[in-house]
Amino acid sequence: MLDVLATVAARFMVHRGQRAALGPLIEEAQRLGLDYQTILRDPMGHVGQPVVWCVDHPSWGNAYLAGKPSEPLVLENESAFPINSPTSGGTCTTVVATIGEVPAMFVPERGVVLHFVGLP
How do residues 45-54 score in pLDDT, each as one tens digit? Predict the structure, then answer.
């Protein structure tokens, strides 16, 4: 029983530390207030800047912003992003991310490139 409590406590402390580390990024994201269209107009000018967005990621290779398939996302480190399938409730997940590197042959219709940082 004590082992279980120790494990739970350790996980709590790790999660708490991760949240504290995300604090400055969340504050910067709020200060910048970047939206999808702003980034799409100048993706290179926003690389590395943080956003706190609700990301729909129903399946591998398929992601978009907050229930809007008209605003697709390209996930750099896709395996780090939580998947939210219709069977698991199908709602988007709020994440802290940075605007990712824009590929040389970038096609704006593919969407904004995101790099997952953590869960707020």
Answer: 999 999 999 9
Task: Give the side-chain half-sphere CA count within 13 A for 9.
Answer: 6
Domain extent for 50: 2-118
Model pTM score? 0.79
Number of domains in the chain: 1
**How are beta strands 112-118 and 68-75 bridged, if at all?**
parallel
CA 98, 84, 119, 9 torsion-angle sign: negative
Of 59, 53, 48, 51, nearest to 90 by C-alpha is 59
Partnered with residue 56 across adjacent β-strands are 64
Yes or no: say if 106 and 43 are a contact pair by the CB < 8 Å rule: yes
Query: Coil, strand, or helix at residue 45?
Result: helix
Token readout for 8 is 């739970």
Query: From start to end of the chain, where are the E strands?
Result: 50-59, 62-65, 68-75, 93-99, 112-118
**Pairing mode of beta strands 50-59, 68-75:** unpaired
